[in-house]
Amino acid sequence: MNYNLFVYTVNNMKATIIKRISILFLFTTGFGLTSFAQCVSEENVYSFIYNGKNYEVIKETMTWAEAASCAVERGGYLTEIDSQAEQDTIYGAIIHGAEVSADYTTVVDGGGIAYIWIGASDQDTEGTWLWDGDGDSIGINFWNGQGAAGLNNGTPVDELYNNWGGSSSGSPNEPDDFNEGQDCAAIGLAKWPAEAPFTLGIASEWNDISSTNSLYYIIEFDCKETSSTITESSCNSYISPSGKTWTSSDTYLDTILNAAGCDSVITINLTIITIDTTVNLDGITLTANASGVEYQWLDCDQAYSIIEGESNQSFTASFNGNYAVEITEGSCVDTSACYAATPVMVNEQPFEDEIIVHQGTNRDIFHIDLGDIHQEIFIKIADINGRVVASKTFTQSQLLNIEIDTPPGIYFLTVTSEKQQAVIKIIKN
C-alpha cells in the first residue's frame, strides 16, 4: 500500500507507457527482427536447492507476466511458497546467496521499497489468490479477501501458508488492492511504507503490487525423476552409489539425487563373484575345489611366498609345511586357509645324529656327510631371521657340498630326505 496517491498515479502512468512500449517491441520481434533463445542471461541467475527442488533467483527485471513466461520457458514457474521453512530458505537465498541489494529498485505503489516477484496472483478474480506461477490462471487457492489495510476480510484457505505484510505482528495488513490495481504478490526487501511513521509489512513479508512493476523474480522447478540402468560385477560384495552393501547377485534398485537435486533411480544388474577357497587335503596332495580359475600355491611358513612352478589345481607337498592356494577369477583374487602337509616322517632316532657338517678351506663351502646314500635330498640354509640364503636338491648322494655366499654368522641347515628331516645349527667363520 502507498500512502501518497499522487505519486502512485504518476508512477502508474509511467508503468502503462513502459508496458505499451514493451508490447510493441515484442510484436515487432515476432516478424523476425530478433528472437531470444533464452529469456535471461545465465550470469544473472543464482541457483539453489531446497527440499529436493531447484530454485533460481533471476537478477533481471521483468513484469509479473514476463517473469511467469520466462519461468515457463526455463522449465519452471514463479515460486509457490508452502511453508515457513521454504520462505526462510528463499529469503536467505535472495539476500545472502544472490546478494540482491535491498534498494536495487523502488516500487512506488509498494511503499517505496524493492521487491521480488513470487507466483501468487488474483488477476482473474479480485480477492481470490492463487498460486499461478505459470500464468495460466489455474492454481491452488490459498487466500481469500484483504488484510487489515484493505477490507479486513482476508482469511487463509484450509489454513494454507501465507506471509502477507503484518503477519509477523499477528494480523496481516496485506493484501489490500490499493487503488484497485494490485493483483500480483512479491517479497518485500525492507519495511514499508519506507518513509511513513507506520508499518504495513517488513522485509521478507509479501505485498500485493501492480503486475506492471519490473522486478527480479524467483523460479521454482518441480523435480523430474531420472532413471538409468547399469551392469556391475564385484568381488564378494558391492557398495551401491547410495552406500548400500549387497553380497548376492540380483537386480537391485538404488536411488540417489541427480544434478537437479531430484531422485535418480538406478537399476543395477549385479553379479557378485564369490571365490570358493576351500581345499581338499588327501594325504600330502592338496586340491582346490574351485574349477576353471587360475591357481598359485603358496608356502605359508615362508610369508606366503610363491612356490615356483606350482600353478595347477592340485599340489603335492615334498616337504613338511603349511600351504595355501591363491585363486584368481577374472578381476577377483582370494587366498585359502593354510593346510598342513607332512610327507616327511621323523624317525625315533634323530636324523641329525647321522649327519656330519664341516666348513671347507674355502670358507663359503660346507661339506655334508649324510652317513648313507639317499635317493633324494633337499638342502635349505636360512639365516637367523628365517631368510633362505641357499637351497639345492641332490639325488643318489651321501657326500654333499653346498656354497653359502653370505657374511659370517649363524645359520640353520635343513636336510630333508624321503622320510626324514633334520635342522642343524651351523656357524660360518
Structure description:
The strands form six sheets. Strands 1, 2, 3, 4, 5, 6, 7, 8, 9 and 10 form a ten-stranded mixed sheet that branches. Strands 18, 19, 21, 22 and 23 form a five-stranded antiparallel sheet that branches. Strands 24, 25, 26, 27 and 28 form a five-stranded antiparallel sheet that branches. The protein is mainly β and 429 residues long. It is built from three helices and 28 strands. The model is unreliable at 1-37 (pLDDT under 50). It has four domains: 5-221, Mannose-Binding Protein A, subunit A (Mannose-Binding Protein A, Chain A), CATH 3.10.100.10; 226-273, no CATH class; 279-340, no CATH class; 351-428, Immunoglobulin-like. It is rod-shaped.
Summary keywords:
429 residues, Mannose-Binding Protein A, Chain A, mainly beta, ten-stranded mixed β-sheet, 41% strand, five-stranded antiparallel β-sheet, rod-shaped, disordered N terminus, 28 strands
